[in-house]
């Protein structure tokens, strides 16, 4: 039997080339070998204020981008997190088992609290438990995560132990899947920080649906050091970030690219990288545009994904209800 894999992206900002390189491109490669669940994590997006109308439109846009980026809705289970009520129900049960001390250690809560001082809400504090529920509902074997998400997966694994110690073996223990290359694409304006789709500076990231002219402008304005040699060097975060992007999108090794640019300057690499990004995203943007013109078809695909996801999620939740002593709805 195929192993099960789950991942998703929170509905905030715009999906970026960093999301594509670090996550979605890897998802696409895994869909033939694994039983894949890919969710649009809209519930997670509620930890910060969202304009309701824009939020709803963005959720549909994310769903369409998943498919446009190459995720086959027949090979994968693609769904909106909020359409599966079992996520919220399991979260409550697991919250009653998770010590506050473990949540206090979550570095992302501290980081996000610093950025949202006027809205440090309970959801922001407990969303790692919702993330654990996302994973455990589908009896997941592998979770594609970036380095910054490893702590959340470790908490998920702790929660499996908490539940098992009290109620017996119930969930699979998930393992991380981390891509060897391109797992962490950095900001174009501050290459010491990860590229974020929620960055206040739009020039720091390339959106999957940015027009070609915008992409070219953003790449050309990417921050680099004062040198000129196109060479990967951890001390030179800007040029190293551009080389990583180029390597993943072109399929060339860093060494091959360095050889191609002997005697050339940063500007030459930026021009070629911008063209490469535009060409990579061209078919994606064309398919996305077609999907967004036919929302009835998108809604049908969304319903199809939700129905597939609920079959698995409801089975797991029924088992959990029985283990903790909740009275079954169906008897």
Kindly describe this structure.
The strands form two sheets. The chain has a three-stranded parallel beta sheet with strand order 1-2-3. It has two domains: 4-178 and 294-324, HUPs (Rossmann fold, 3-Layer(aba) Sandwich); 202-290, Tyrosyl-Transfer RNA Synthetase (Orthogonal Bundle), CATH 1.10.240.10. α1 links the parallel β1 and β2 (35-41). Helices cover 54% and strands 7% of the residues. The chain contains 13 helices and five strands. It has 331 residues and is mostly helical.
- Number of domain units: 2
**CATH superfamily descriptor of the largest domain:** HUPs
Structural class: mainly alpha
Distance from N terminus to C terminus (CA atoms, Å) equals 31 Å
CATH names the topology of the largest domain as: Rossmann fold
Q: What's the helical proportion of residues?
A: 40-55%
Q: How much beta, percentage-wise?
A: 5-15%
- Classified by CATH, the class of the largest domain is Alpha Beta
**What would the principal axes of the Cα set say about the shape?**
globular
CATH architecture of the largest domain: 3-Layer(aba) Sandwich
**Helix-strand pattern, N to C?**
EHEHHEHHHHEHEHHHHH
* Uncertain stretches of 5 or more adjacent residues: none
Largest sheet: number of strands, sense, barrel closure: 3 strands, parallel
Radius of gyration, in Å, reads 21 Å
- Arithmetic mean pLDDT: 91
Strand order of the largest sheet: 1-2-3
Please count the beta strands (DSSP E, at least 2 residues each): 5
Count of helical regions: 13
